[in-house]
Automatic annotation (TrEMBL):
It is found in: Cell inner membrane; Cell membrane. Residues 73-264 form the ABC transmembrane type-1 domain. InterPro entries: MetI-like, MetI-like_sf. Coiled coil: none annotated. The chain crosses the membrane at residues 14-42, 79-99, 111-135, 141-161, 189-207, 242-267. This is ABC transporter permease. The keyword Transmembrane applies.
Length: 272
């Protein structure tokens, strides 16, 4: 009896060890490329190589002293903000309709929202480009923002839906029983409880709007070139650590966005 108990305990520990090892390997595979890019951005040589030789901040100085790259960053920030606002404006009501809506098409609506996100970004970008040409609408920052918002709307909808499904409907019913209108109930009860999920969805949609390439390459305005497009042009024309410096800036912005979630609402509360 004791032998079989020890054997089972040993197998449990072995299983836990294997799971932990696989998790560490997966985390290393995810983080290692980003770490290598950041390390290469400090190289003193004029070409990308690993490991780097020396340490310098000159490449970052060049990034923020090139008007083309600075304008590209500002354009990407604008696009990210536009995409976020569009996703909040349309995604939150859609999530409410899918979860609280009392109509036959609620389930179909929740599935329909996922379709653009399931389509490859390149396919969506080409489709929007050709459709816009039929109606005389050319590539622009607004076409890019609307297309990206359509592409990532599912992130906002699903995040808010996950939070909304965990809310007790009795809270809203109690508010209505006390004489509150639907708008008052939403503003004073539902919205504050949904705010963590909305903020989390906003950060993720901003990141996607900021650094998306597959959709942006077909829909961006030629006078408003976002950072991913400029980065692609740099990669095609040069092999300097400037590429790594620009990529490091994008990584830093993504980490700052996740840090904002962690400090404000906590990553563990996103889907509570």
């Amino acid at each position: 009896m004791m032998a079989s108990y020890r054997r089972a305990e040993l197998l449990d520990r072995l299983g836990i060890g294997v799971i932990v090892a696989l998790a560490v390997i997966a985390l290393a595979l995810l983080l290692l490329p980003a770490v290598i890019v950041v390390v290469m951005s400090f190289d003193t040589r004029g070409y990308i190589s690993f490991p780097p030789q020396g340490f310098t901040l000159d490449w970052y100085y060049k990034v923020f002293n090139q008007p083309v790259l600075v304008n590209a960053m500002l354009t990407s920030i604008k696009v990210g903000i536009y995409v976020t606002l569009l996703c909040i404006a349309f995604g939150v009501p859609t999530a409410l309709a899918c979860v609280r809506g009392d109509f036959r098409g609620a389930t179909a609506l929740s599935v329909f929202v996922l379709i653009p996100h399931m389509v490859p970004g390149i396919v969506l970008g080409v489709a929007v480009l050709f459709t816009g040409a039929l109606f005389g609408i050319g590539p622009s920052i607004w076409l890019q923002s609307i297309t990206l918002a359509t592409y990532v709307m599912a992130v906002m909808v699903r995040t808010v839906m996950a939070r909304l499904q965990r809310l007790d409907p009795l809270l809203e019913q109690a508010s209505a029983n006390l004489g509150a209108t639907r708008w008052q109930t939403f503003r004073t009860v539902t919205l504050p409880l949904l705010l963590p999920a909305i903020l989390a969805g906003a950060v993720f949609t901003f990141i996607e709007g900021f650094d998306n390439l597959s959709v942006t390459i077909f829909t961006h305005g030629y006078r408003d070139r976002p950072l991913p497009i400029e980065l692609l042009a740099i990669v095609q024309n040069t092999n300097s650590p400037l590429v790594a410096a620009v990529s490091s800036v994008q990584i830093l912005l993504a980490m700052l966005a996740l840090g904002i979630i962690s400090l404000t609402i906590g990553l563990d509360r996103v889907n509570e």
